[in-house]
Here is the input.
Amino acid sequence: MALVLTSLVDFRHEIQWAEEAKRQYQMPVGFFGTFATHLTEALLGHGDFIIKGEPEHAAMRLASGKTLSGPVVSPPIQDLDSLPFPRWDLAPRRRLGYAIGRSMR
Here is the structure.
């Protein structure tokens, strides 16, 4: 699964990246961030789901095995201390990870 942090500045490249990841790796792709929350319609059809709002609630749903589809409203979690602490020991650094990138075109 790929979660794409969206931005107003680079959303076209983020869409291209998401479509390529989905095509090449057959993985679910979701968008989140300010752009995804407020300009959802620009992302429709380019991924499997779009998180509108704070991502923690939707992330908990994904972690519990639920499949998200289309625009998904994700309300803020009032008690952030209630979120489980990540089990980094279960994710070997070399095998799993994340990347943040920006392009200049």
